[in-house]
């Protein structure tokens, strides 16, 4: 069976749409690294560097970390399936960190979700000293294990990987181990005002810097846009993504057409929102992130992801993806995207680190960062905003419907820290 016929039979987007819009821009300085079949042959990941690798079907791959005793270490893994890949709702990746005795330090999964649209997904792992664990203590060798999860029905080709490792130094003085008990959890009011054009980047390393305000861009089915937002200690970010309505003869429904995800400075996912697209009545409904707390060092001691992820200042990423399946119902686009970004509160002093992060300045907001955000930034930014590309809306009237249940279904996390 030809690819277009097979894709149609599986209910997945056509390859011509995906290939045109879904390419991921890997970091220009990414170094090649091979994933080993076991711990013995694992190659080292050095903090502060970005690596490029691949993940075969039905395989685990191992990488090595050499860690000192005091710092927290964070690893992010972005998986990029080939354009036109067949995916199921539960397909995704698992990222875990273990010590040399195979004790679990952390484990997380990321999934493609109900839209089954090929696009970059990111999971993270960590060896933390704050909060501490009964195991995974001390200096030594640790391992990062990456595995594909899901069903045997997905396409067999290997997925490309981008890996980063970041270390966070300990504090000069011990801090409270209790997270804030009260914070403003009311739904944020979307920012209003005249929109400025700012096209998102095609990867974390190419994220366009934006600050508080209204930003517009073009997005096509299968495309993912990345933005970064400087957020200081004590500040509370918010974001809403809106896809423009389309008038014409097209009609239908696209599940989880538009996805918006907030990632923290180490590319750990904090919160997300998904919106469906209904082509019958033309009403528009935005994808709005639920409220997250202001940045606080002690948030790391909380259990909910959207709280413990807000543990440090720096560039937060907004990633927007427009599902490839939108093209099947509404055309190839591009479609108008409006991003409303808010940052509440005055920046405060940090907790007082006893050293520097690797790479440097990850957990702070510099004057240069704020200047770039005020001007709309460039297409190369440290804080990444994942712009979810909802794509392929042709002639037709479109309405967005939130499918919160799919948000919970699409991503399951298991943390041991």
From TrEMBL:
Residues 174-190 have a biased composition (Polar residues). Keywords: Membrane, Transmembrane, Transmembrane helix. It comes from the Bacteria. Residues 169-205 are annotated as: Disordered. The chain crosses the membrane at residues 387-408. This is Uncharacterized protein.
